[in-house]
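Schema walk-through. Below, the input block comes first and the output block second. Nothing else is stored per chain. Lengths vary across the set, and this one has 424 residues.
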Amino acid sequence: MIEPNFARAIINKLGSTGTPPEFGIETFTIGLEKHLSIIEDEYLKGILKYNLSSFKLITGNYGGGKTHFLYSVRNLAFKHDFVVVYVSLNPTECPFDKLELVYKQIVINLTPPVSEEELTKPWEKGIESLLHRWYKDSKAKVEQVNSMHEYLRTIKGTESTSFLNAVKGAFTSIIAEDDEGFESVLQWLKGEEVGRDVRARYRISERIDKATAFRIIRSLAQWIHAIGYSGLILLFDEAERGMSISSSKDKRRALDNLRQILDECGNSRLPGVMFFYAIPDENLLLDGSGGVYEALKQRLRSTLSETNPVGVKIDLEELGIEPAQFLKALGLRLAGLFESAYGFEFNRSVLEKTISNLSDLALSAFAYDVSYRRLFVIGTIEAFHRIRKEPAKSIERKDAESILRVTTQKLTEESKAEVESEEF
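--- output ---
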């Protein structure tokens, strides 16, 4: 039985936005088992353990479960001792055409493995958290300070000497309890400008800019592998309606970055690394002509399945389960959460009739290209609150139409506002 406040937090998040919270997603996951099983067996327990790397493109309508899927991958990766990064791409702070800004978001969101119990609580993120975890784990194995310094000398193999010197400098600062030194080298690791004295002290010769960003990202992955983790899982989410790029020139640069990542996968410079790139519509990515478009189309052609586990694309609109069946199963999962949250028990016939009416109508609704899944989730939770007030009264078709009409209007207005903000 899920803890009531935990269940209520999930219901509140889903009912207000239709988007998943960072925690508790396994309680309402439907239809992802096959894809997640392939990822776990073929990659997390398979080729990534042999220092190889891979890339997957996740597609699905706006509100169609991409973030939910990425969170599910994250939780699986934690179980197998991977460091995970979830990055929400957007045109201002983190456009994919500017890898130096992407790097900044990566180091802010670096998350060491989290246990199942810890997933229900706030957890620490960021490269500083990972550095302190590294020190703590090393100290548990090595007692004397001299031995710690000897251990540090064994850490090698990053492409960027400056990056390696920086993380070693941070480690040494923790040993010496030199908070000022730690903060100054951390500033460089976060992609910020530092003074010449800091660069000289820690033997840092590079800046993190568009010319060096990908090499620094590779070095980050190499360091994570060198200090004992299984590898690094990077979850890039084009969470807004369009892509995180605003012009054709920016798009070409973003596509070139993506092509470069795809080409790097499979070689030893990315040990134990897996990239996931989620986008609402692959046509946003590939609708164009020229070399970079054709190169990407060739690389992204294959689809992941049980018969083709090496496929690149994962289409979340094709889960192998009929949409009506999917929504009814999801409705029952949400009902279980709702019952735990409010200490309430549904009349089963009332519940089934309500879910049936809402699922039928959600599938036929149009909400400015918003997924029927998000529409169903928000509408269903509102319906559950109504039933809680009048337990014997099911949501009839007329009531369901009213709920979904208001929800559709809300989502449509939000979507239009988002599109307009991107255009201007």
